[in-house]
Amino acid sequence: MTDTPSDDEIVQLARQAGLVLPAEYVPELIEAYGHVRRMIGRISTARPHGDEPAHVFVPSVFLPGKE
Amino acid sequence: MTELAFLGIAEASRLIAARRLSPVELTEACLRRIAAFDSQLDSFVTLTAERARAEAKAAEAAIMASGPASRLHGIPYCLKDIFDTAGIRTTAMSKLLADNVPTRDARCQEKLAAAGGVLLGKNATWEFAHGGPSWDVLFPPARNPWDRSCSPAGSSSGSAAAVAAGFAPATLGSDTGGSIRGPAAACGIAGLKPTYGLVSRRGVIPNCFSHDHAGPLAWTTEDVAILLQIIAGHDPEDPGSADVTIPDYSAALTGDLKGLVIGVPEKWLADEAPPAAATMAAFEAALDVCRGLGASVRPVTLPPLQQFDDSKRLIAVAELFTIHGADLRKRPELFGASLRYRIIAGGLVRAEDYIQAMRLRTDLARSLQAVLSTVDLLMLPTSEPAGKLEPVPPSSLFTRASFTTPFNVGGNPALSVCSGFDARGLPFSLQIVGKLFDEATVLRAGDAYEKAMPWRGKRPALQSGLAH
User: Fold this and answer.
1) Is the pTM above the cut of 0.95?
2) CB-based contact (8 Å) between B304 and chain A?
3) Measured distance CA(B440)–CA(B456) in Å, rounded
4) Interface residue B327 vs chain A (CB under 8 A)
5) Hey, are the CB atoms on B332 and A21 less than 8 Å from each other?
6) Are B145 and B64 in contact (CB under 8 A)?
7) In a structure prediction context, what are the per-residue pLDDT tens digits for chain A, which is 67 residues long?
8) What strand order describes the sheet that includes B76-80?
9) How far apart are CA B286 and CA B185, in angstroms?
10) How far A7 CA sits from the closest chain B CA (Å)?
């Protein structure tokens, strides 16, 4: 992650995500996003290109008659 | 312990099969107990008493005519209020779903009904099985029957409280980071998070798709095995459902642990998140019991707890926002403050970070399965005994180390059983973790431990006439 964003930048990021919050909820957004950024910082690491995420797409699951 | 409502599934089903106990009588005993005591515990948010009476009468007639169709036939049960029930309000404790009446049952409810169970009602949870405890959602939070001033933990709070209080011998909950095992631990009962995919999630309101599990809670592991037998199995309508052979779980309950090797993640317990001394003493005592039952115990090394927590929480906050984003944008005031805090930043998680968290999950799951290939089971405390029921900082979800979350990340079966009581009389807990789809060995261990110890003979003492 890049440098810690300012409170205004966090509000702007939220707007870009379509989240235009009443002012009373902005402090909790800023605090919660701080926790999220710290988690992202801890998990960020260089990985080989071929490292697969824990998604497994099994196309047969979505055959007609399966739902 | 003579109250009819304290009968477990195994014993009640034996008596029903022998025609020495009527499902109507058993159901009325549960309803009487709920009427007398649930105002103290708030474990039910919807009671379906008339439906239960009708189902009990029908079960009784069917059993008299041709014997029980299953070991649940005529036995009362309840459901966490995130399982869809056709024609019965299903709220997830949220003001957003105050009037939500599903038109179709969850797959698990279909199976319990087909087995002849008697639905008593729906249990309190945390909002959308994630944010809590909360006092600003649709219903008040459930309380712990061992001490009403204490928390039953979450999110299957009411489910665990109801079983411990003798309101119902069986219930289902859901577990995304510990929501079956935590309440089972706090309330001193048995609760199993099955392997991911073993039990259908179709019709269960999602918390975090990639980590959600549905599973049983009951007073004993023996009863959990009976419930799992009924609800396990492939469901083509759940994309995460596994098509595996379902063994006879009750047949696996041999009463001993001969030849089993138990791994203990000592670094977690000694360095990363050391439990309180009394909790560790109870855990060491439980390991001694397991040794006495024929198991050997050795230390194992797992990846750091923090990595499991970070991976799961980042994935969860993004998936939660995906589920709730539309409502959060339009009517944020209808969310409880606790849940809103826990999902509000999910919209700012980049796809890159979500996928990196999923890559970390791959590493962690591989490491966990590798360690479990060297032992039969892992054991560790589920959690500390229950704390006071009071508002907690919603940030705790992001900061508190969890002994349950790693097994949601790995998808492994994990059972919590009661392992004694602390100085306040609140339960200690033992968590038993197995290889993927090896619920049989997990249940064998839980059952053998329970039967070697006196803890199942003690119930919470509730007084009628009290209200909080």
Assistant:
1) yes
2) no
3) 21
4) no
5) yes
6) no
7) 557 899 999 999 999 999 999 999 999 999 999 999 999 999 999 999 999 999 878 888 888 875 5
8) B44-47, B118-123, B76-80, B170-175, B213-218, B190-193, B414-421, B427-434, B377-380, B261-265, B296-300
9) 14
10) 13
